[in-house]
Amino acid sequence: MHVFKSYSVLSIGGIAILLTGSVGAAAASGSDGGTITYTIKHIDDQKLANDYMLSRDQYKGLMIAKDPATPFDNAAHNCLGSLVVNPGRGPPLQINGVCDGVDKDGDVFWMWFHDEGNTHTWSFMGGTGKFDGLTGEGTTSQISAGPNQLVIGWEGSWKMK
Predict the structure, then answer these.
(1) All domains of the chain in start order, with CATH
(2) What pTM value is reported for the model?
(3) Can you tell me the distance from the alpha carbon of 56 to that of 78, in angstroms, rounded to the nearest whole number?
(4) What whole-number distance in Å separates Cα of residue 41 and Cα of residue 45?
């Protein structure tokens, strides 16, 4: 039973926070922002010591960049996140996860996210094709949340080989 639905949406806060900027021969780095809209599927809950609970969710989403010419615009995201909560005692203690993204050309990028308190951070972990050697980091914020849905805003910077 997923009793943390209102908190699980926060776990994407750090999730898919992909960076964009114009990419071309003269521009291998940039910074930008945009939105990602996710559908959330609860996976399971696991009881922990001291009345804590580990809750796991899958997030599938679509990234829209401010600059549609970037390679991340319209990239599909698939993320797994876990959060530790104490039911009835406020927001999650921590939220962590990993994501993969696939662009229109079929190239993949990987990233991790971490949310703790009011800090929502993420970082790229490389990729394939044009994303080979990809690095970058940034932050996210929740725009809206509903039953099994989350919209986040992201901003950050990146560098490609």
Answers:
(1) 5-159 (2.40.350.10)
(2) 0.80
(3) 14
(4) 12
